[in-house]
Amino acid sequence: MSFYQKVLTKVINKNIIPKKASILVVAGGKKDKDVFLNCGFENVTISNLDYDRGVKNYGPYSWKNEDAENLSFQENEFDWVFVHAGLHHCASPHKALCEMLRVSKKGIGVFESRDSLLNNFANKLGLAPSYEIEPCVLSNGKFGGVRNSNIPNYVYKWTENEVRKTVNSYLPQYKHNFQFYYGLLVPIERLVMSKNIFKKVLAFTGKILVPFLTFFFKKQGNLFAFIVIKNIDLQPWLKIENGNIVFDLEYSKRKYNPEKYSESN
Question: Is 246 part of any domain?
Answer without folding.
Answer: no
